[in-house]
Write a structure and sequence with these properties.
- This protein is an all-alpha fold.
- The protein has a domain at 99-228.
- Helix content is 83%, strand content 0%.
- Helix 2 (50-69) packs antiparallel against helix 3 (73-96), helix 3 (73-96) packs antiparallel against helix 6 and helix 4 (101-125) runs antiparallel to helix 5 (127-158).
- The radius of gyration is 21 Å and the shape is globular.
- The termini are far apart.
Length: 229
């Protein structure tokens, strides 16, 4: 009886701790979003456009490739973090002014190029150990990215008058590996670069799963749902 009571008590404590951690995490996220939005408004008032911030962040992000190739993982991590910070800021500036089609296009292109560049950088850091895993990840990343973009093109063709929601860029590594998860993976890789093989395989599998998921979604929406209409 005592063991059962202890098990129930531990379960309650675990749920309470998890709930508290989630609430604290949400509070931190909201504070971060508020700070980014306020900073974006200040940048917008100063006349700094979202595209300038996007390009600046991309250039800083590209420096990570050079640092990775030289094995300078700390500086590569700094460049990656600054790139992600600028990526958050350009969205805040765009919301404070006006989101335009070219800005969305530019943000998507630079995000894709940045992530592919970081993968390439890890391959340069240790070609003998990382090249195959990096190639697999780039293959999976390209497959999911192309599927996502192709789906967007057909969806827009079918409903050109529908306004798309670009408040947050959907163009993250592989779709399922969203912004936060991808950033965590890159941070871990810079801290423990010896784990690149394992993490690259996991991310690559996520990308391929997303690739298959998009294809099945496209078949349902463009074939099955279209016939029902």
């Amino acid at each position: 009886m005592q063991k059962r009571f202890d098990a129930i008590l531990n379960k309650i404590k675990s749920q309470y701790i998890n709930s508290k951690l989630c609430n604290n995490g949400m509070c931190l996220y909201k504070k971060w979003q508020k700070y980014i939005n306020q900073t974006g408004e200040k940048f917008a008032k100063a006349g700094i456009s979202a595209n300038v911030i996007s390009i600046s962040g991309f250039v800083i992000g590209l420096l990570a490739i050079n640092f990775l190739a030289m094995g300078m993982y700390f500086w590569a991590l700094i460049c990656i973090l600054f790139n992600r910070l600028f990526d958050a800021l350009d969205g805040a500036v765009a919301r404070a002014t006006k989101i335009n089609d070219f800005g969305v296009f530019l943000d998507a292109c630079l995000d894709y190029a940045f992530y592919a560049g970081v993968i390439f950088g890890f391959a340069l850091a240790n070609p003998y150990q990382n090249a195959v895993a990096a190639s697999f990840l780039l293959f999976a990343f390209t497959a999911s990215a192309c599927a996502m973009l192709a789906y967007s093109v057909v969806a827009y063709k079918n409903r050109p008058s529908q306004k798309l929601d670009f408040e947050q860029s959907p163009f993250y590594l592989g779709g399922l590996a969203q912004g936060f998860e991808t950033l965590v993976a890159l941070v871990v890789l810079c801290i423990v670069p010896g784990w690149f093989l394992q993490i690259a395989v996991i991310l690559g599998c996520w990308c391929l799963f997303k690739f298959l998921f998009i294809i099945s979604t496209a078949y349902y929406n463009f074939v099955i749902a279209a016939k029902k209409k």
